[in-house]
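Input record (Table S2, row 488):
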Amino acid sequence: MSQKDTLGQELSRRGISRRALLKFAAAAATSLALPPSFAPAIAEELSKARRQSLIWLSFQDCTGCLEALTRSEAPGIERLIFDFVSLDYQETLMAAAGTAAEDVLKAVAQENRGNYLLAVDGSVPVADNGVYSMIGGRSPMAILSELAEGAAAVLAIGTCAAYGGIPKAAPNPTGAAGIGALVGGKPVVNIPGCPPIPEVLTGVLVNFLTFGKLPDLDAQGRPLAYFGTTIHDQCYRRPYYDQGKFAKSFDDAGARQGWCLFELGCKGPTTHNACASLKWNGGTSFPIQSGHGCLGCSEPDFWDKGSFYTSLSGGEGPPWGAVAGAAAGGVAIGGAAAFAARRARASVERQLAQEWKAQEDEA
Amino acid sequence: MQSDDPFLQALLAELRMLLAQLLESGESGQIDLLRLPMAPAQTEALRALLGQGEIVITLEAEGPSRIEETRLSGVWWVEHHDRAGHLVARLLEVAAVPEIVPAAAPDIGASLGVLSGEDAGKAET
Ligand code: SF4
Ligand code: SF4
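Output record (iron/sulfur cluster complex):
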């Protein structure tokens, strides 16, 4: 496809129908926590958009993020996003290698200067002049600075790129750091998770293509639509937490009845991510639904926060006084908690709706 | 229609509001069920509660979709799947006909173009 064509022209040439685009937009609206009534407008804006150039760099990573993103919905509707972006450089996926690949990178960065999105997975080793991860004889920091300078924005994909992740775990021998700590003067969106939820990247790209800007972020640089609430806020086991019903081991009667996993180390109460609502593997399930607590993988330094199996209160369960009070309220409190979560989500929706309207008024 | 679950009660109240709005102003409404913190059993309970109406529509566009009228006329249970069969959207849509179903003007125009082209071809021969 020529980058001058609109996506609508390209899709209809390829026999992708208006209804397929509407379906994609409905899925994107769900994922962005936008009201579903926005789907037709998203479809309309996407069909008017032009293909977006994306340059993807990998530094100190395990390639798990890329695996999660490219394998997840490979044959699914999410794959349409790959029609909306032109992935111009990704060393694991591209056929070219060595100097040929480096030449492609130079040419693409030059041609799309100021307009390309720069995605990065993996952390950047800054100790000892970056010798721990040299690429083509250059340090990751040198490559990052040069390409971030010409980018419209930078997407830090995965917890390693966002906050340093596992390479940064104590004692951090390579001086690993996240992108946001190293790149100045450019908007950086953190999409943490180990790995990140694929739909979040799709949502950020759809947001960029339809609104022409990046989504609103929380204090940790994460899109509010996905990271605005905790796993605990959205967890379907929450009524059990509120009633003080906790599994004490992975195979006790409580575990079998689906009770709360707090005492088994669940970090849901302090972890911001969308696993409990978007879920994994095409909405199949998420760790807590499969019987294991949240590890807190989308938070900075999750690897250094003690055992995954120690509860947040140090192994002794939640503050029992408060739980006893909540238990007396029973199901009603569970319902109230669910609605508190919904209210938080509704405020994000309202904010996005306002942005959308402002955008339309400007146009 | 009643439920003991306060969460489902609230959803029914929202449906009531959307139906009233549809009657008064003709404006349709949707509830995004995938983004609500519902246990799988709650989703099943809601589906059972709403029951089955007279119409079931299947749609094949980059994967199957199933659009079912519920026992409440004007309330539709919509599920979109991708080609791998994964669920990508689950909505309750309150409308006379869900938005994705009717043919759109540009597509109807394209059909007209196809037939007009055929007619022109025949006239030439
Ligand atoms: S502690 Fe974990 S399992 Fe329990 S309600 Fe919170 S997120 Fe769910
Ligand atoms: S449930 Fe927790 S540990 Fe698991 S993927 Fe989600 S945020 Fe990460």
